[in-house]
Amino acid sequence: MSMRPDLSPAFTPPEAGDTLRRIAEALERLAPAPPPLPDFAVTDAFVWQASTGALQPVAKVNRVDLSLLRGIDRVRDTLGENTRRFALGLPANNALLWGARGMGKSSLVKAVHAAINEDLAERPGFARLKLIEIHREDIESLPGLMALVRAAAFRFLVFCDDLSFDANDTSYKSLKAVLEGGIEGRPDNVLFYATSNRRHMLPRDMMENERSTAINPGEAVEEKVSLSDRFGLWLGFHRCSQDEYLDMVRGYARHFGIEAPIETIERDALEWATTRGSRSGRTAWQYIQDLAGRLGKAIST
């Protein structure tokens, strides 16, 4: 008598097939629908929503005119030329803007983006450059964003403001892989700009702890600081002098048509900076907002 196993397909009652079909349809209804591909032509700026994997259009970007950014001429020109080359499809570098708070790092990125689009708007065949902001806490989702824009017909500046990492934070490894080290690498149509108060984006005590506790301190620190090496441009921002600060204040006052004696404006601006313990572009802007409010003058960026 043959003991071969029965290899014929098992009989499935019709009721079981209907049940399985209903389960599959229910699961499809419960599963979130993939986010629609954004219409990149509707606007020039977007915010990456990591929780949904979608890009939120920004109708009006909060920025100032490039001409109002004073005391940073060298970094302004360097970043502008790098961005212009990228917008034209030429080789360009990722950029890290680091240094003193309030000196216009993020303002420069947004102003350069607008200026490049304006300058090249009439160039035949030019597709407007898109700006995408990704929040610091969403850096680990950067590969998903890269996959979304990789095949798009536009070029993108992906921008992260105030980028830094804490001692136990390992998300910087995701950023390293995306910028240069991953198997796919950064898409040709993407450039990454970041601002940070720290040149290496890591706290000093974290660096010192690595030196004191690692078996090979040199290699441990090198692993941490190598992130900044992924940025071809390091653009430093330093505290401004009193003359540069007053030049910023005068520039804002002229631009917005604020009518007041210049001697009074300068004296009050210096007192304003003294009460805050700093001179910077942000301090100058805050003073101008206060002055315009006291004079009943509406201003708009």
List the helices and strands and how they pair.
Elements: H1 14-30, E1 45-49, E2 54-57, H2 73-87, E3 95-99, H3 105-119, E4 130-133, H4 142-149, E5 156-160, H5 172-181, E6 190-196, H6 204-213, H7 217-225, E7 233-237, H8 242-255, H9 262-276, H10 281-295
Helix pairs in contact: 2-3, 6-7, 8-9, 8-10, 9-10
Give average pLDDT, whole number.
Answer: 84
* CATH topology call of the largest domain: Rossmann fold
Please give the number of β-strands.
Answer: 7
Calculate the terminal CA-CA distance, rounded to whole Å. 92 Å
H/E order of the elements?
HEEHEHEHEHEHHEHHH
Descriptive keywords:
7-stranded mixed beta sheet, 10 helices, 43% helix, 2 domains, Rossmann fold, alpha/beta
Structure description:
Mean pLDDT is 84; it is low at 210-218. The longest helix has 17 residues, at 14-30. The protein has ten helices and seven strands. A seven-stranded mixed beta sheet has the order 2-1-4-5-6-3-7. The protein folds into two domains: 45-237, P-loop containing nucleotide triphosphate hydrolases (Rossmann fold); 242-295. It has helices spanning 14-30, 73-87, 105-119, 142-149, 172-181, 204-213, 217-225, 242-255, 262-276, 281-295, and strands spanning 45-49, 54-57, 95-99, 130-133, 156-160, 190-196, 233-237. With 301 residues, the protein is an alpha/beta fold. 29% of the residues are buried.
